[in-house]
Structure formats: structure tokens, C-alpha cells
Fold this sequence. Notes:
There is one protein chain. With 475 residues, the chain is of the alpha/beta class. It has two domains: 6-102 and 278-379 and 410-472, Rossmann fold; 108-274, no CATH class. It has 14 helices and eleven strands. The strands form two sheets. It has a nine-stranded mixed sheet, sandwiched between helices. Strand 10 (446-447) and strand 11 form a beta hairpin. The longest helix has 35 residues, at 261-295. The two termini are 38 Å apart. Mean pLDDT is 82; it is low at 104-120, 207-256 and 388-394.
Amino acid sequence: MAGPFEHIPMDGGGSADLYLLRYDDQGRLRSPEAAAEVRARVQDPGDVTDVFCFAHGWNNVFAQALDRYRGFATGFVTQGAAFGIPKPAPYRPLLVGAVWPSTSFVMPWEAGPQIAADPDPFGRQAAEVEELLELVTSSLEPARDQEFTEAVDGRRAVDAATAERIAEIAIEALRAGPDPDDGSPPPQPEDLLEAWAALDALARDGGAGAGGAPGSPPDGAPGTPGDGAAGDPGAAPIGFGTIGDHPHEAQPGAAGLDFDPRDLLRMATVWKMKARAGTVGAHGLGPLVEHVLTHSAARLHLIGHSFGARVVLSALTTAAAPRPAHCVLLLQPAVNRWCFAPHVAGTQRAGGFHGVLDKVTRPLMTTFSSHDAPLTRFFHLAMRGSHLGEPDFAGVGNTDLYGALGGFGPAGLTGLAVEEKAAVPGEGRYPLAGGARVIAVDGGVDINGLPAISGHGDISNPVTWWALHDLTRPD
């Protein structure tokens, strides 16, 4: 459908048009009329001076994406009016929200269920496993699909030999090459089995989940605030572990005991969604970014949450444009913390998004928070590569090599990055003119007795709006 999907009221009267552009899992545009209108409008300097482009994380039916974008834009506008934050002159913004397929089941740390809590074996729990299986096997050739499906279908436990075989198949299909963020080689089957066991052990240690009380809802799961509002800081992500399903079943991690194949499905979906986010960014949003930077003078502001950070980073990386974007704000990004480094530890290459630092005018700003349980407790286990020669005790839980940018902040950026506590809205400012190319905002600090960023989904709040204001204000 052509035309803006919604109008966001602006302070002082008027409104900003919000367009939603939908992409499929290959980055193919599914909203051609709306996209054509955006392209035409940004070329008219009398119409558009600033383009704000958003990419959501995991929770992506169309209505939820709209709600996330509407909430962030409205909060941003309201805060600007409350503090009298100056705007460029002239200022005629246009908002674009990318909608890409990362369904509610596929992010195990955010939407994975507590299986024991659902007495209906044919309810949401079973539907989740079906969706995970379909997502993973869609990348397999027919013979591998048959072997994999027959090994895991309907099973709550497989022996070690079967676990190793299905791990081989998953790696072959989904992790065959070097990691695009950090260049690490793909895990060997034994590496993957170690991570599989570690994830389950983490769930065991936390009872119902990683660090949460039994029955705690996952951060961002249906029924909780999700991407668009502050999450329950005590809520724990559920989904990798299955303690409580069948108390008499053996759990992975001890020699000779069985592995629950659902945990591997959940881990493999993380790999799949990571790759999909990159594809959507490069082939979907990338051409629009290139158009704005080539055929207009509008300032381009990119904002991405979780795997949406990978969408906007991939878009900017692949865009061949004569000028840089104005700013990039990453909110709890689910990308490797070495992704901007000129030299990644243990490899002979730069981080996958190092080149982005030369394609943005203002310092790239990224948040991280110790309260983000998915990115501080799970990400490095699911995304680890091969040992890279480090001691075995560091291989599985190595947050230095495999940690998330949104969990621990950037690595390998000596002299290029600065870490700042989250600024108090209306009071603090960030050192945009200090020479750093990356400003890492610590959202784990308290402001007025509450965490600045209380969880993975808490990315539309006064602290994040203030960060975007700092990046976009003319002074």
C-alpha cells in the first residue's frame, strides 16, 4: 500500500510520516509502492531533511513492529519537547520502519517457553518445537533433512552418538564458514556438544531458567513488555534448558547421559536468525540506505535493536554511497563485541563491521547492560566458534571472544572507543567531539534508583531517547 502507514504528532504542531517496509527472509521487498514513495520523497529537500530508519529485533509480526516504532518515536518527540532540545533548521523528518521475519518462537532466550508449565502437549510448546524444526531443516538438503528429522522428531532425549551426528548436520548447514562478526572458525561437533551441555547446566543452576525464579516470564516473551517497553528486571529468559520437563530424564553435561534435541534446535535457530538479519540488511534495507545517501542530502539516522542492529550494520556496510550516514544507535545489539575491531583476537582479520566506522559522521553509539540476561548469559554460549587454541575451561563460556556487544560492550578498540555511564536525561551529554569512533553506553548503571536499561527488551525509555537526541541535535 502506498502512503505513510501512520502519522506521528510532532511538538509544535504537524506530524512526521511513518512508513513500514516489509522484507522477506531473503531481503526481497514486499512493500514496493511504499518504498517507491519513500525514495521519491527523500530526493526532495523541500520535503525531507532527516530520515530515521529503525530495525526491530526478535518480535516481529507486523502489529508488534508498528507498536515498537510508534512507541519509540512518540517517546523521542515527547522528550524533545519536554527538555526543549534544539532541532536542525529546517527539520522535516521522515520515519521508516523495517519489518522482517523473525517470528516470536525463534529467539530462544526471549520467547522460548518453560515447557513444564504447559500441560497441553499439543499446545504452544509443541507448536514451538514444530516451528524450530521447520526453521532449521529448511536449510538442509533432502537427505540431511530426513536424517536430522528422524533423529529428533518428537524426542526428548538422544544418546551422545546421535547428538554428535545431528550436531555435525547443523554445523554443516548453518555454521559452515567463519563467523561474519569475529572470523572465528565454526565449532567442531564436540565444541557444540560442550555448549549444548553448558546451556542446559545454566538452566539447571537457575531453576526454571538462567538466574530467574521458577515461573518467571522470559524477557520479551508474549505477555511481557517485549522490545517496546521496560521488561521485568527479574525476569529470566527461558528456553535453552529443559529442567522440569521430565525430572527422571537424564540431562546433558555428564558422560553417558542423553541430550534433549530441542536445545540444539533452539541454538541452531539463533544461527539462522543471525544469518537472516544480515541478509535482510544487505539485500533489503541496504539498497534504501544507498539511495538515501546517493540521491538526497537528507541526514540518515539508523537505529537497530538486538538482531536489528545486524540489519542496519549490514545495510550500511554493503551500501555503496558517496557520503556517510549521520549517526547509528545500536540498542542492546546481538552482535559479537569484536565486530568493530581492527584486529580480532585469535584471527588475522578485522571485525566484520569495522568498515562501518568510516561510514558514519558522528561516533557510533551502542548500549550494553549487565541486566540483559540473554546477552550476558546465553549469547556467547550459542555463538561460540572453535576453541581457537584457548584452554578448554575458557572455550565454552568465553565472553571475551564470543560475548555480545549488548552484554559486555566493544572489545579490541583501544583508542577508538570510550565507555560512558548512561547519561541522565536532561543533564548529561556524551563526548561526541572527543575523537572516539564508538561510544559504549553502560545501561547497567542505576538512574534514580532503577537500572538505566533493565533487560534486553528495555530499549524504548528516557535513556535511549536521550542518546538519540544527543546524536541528532545540531549543537
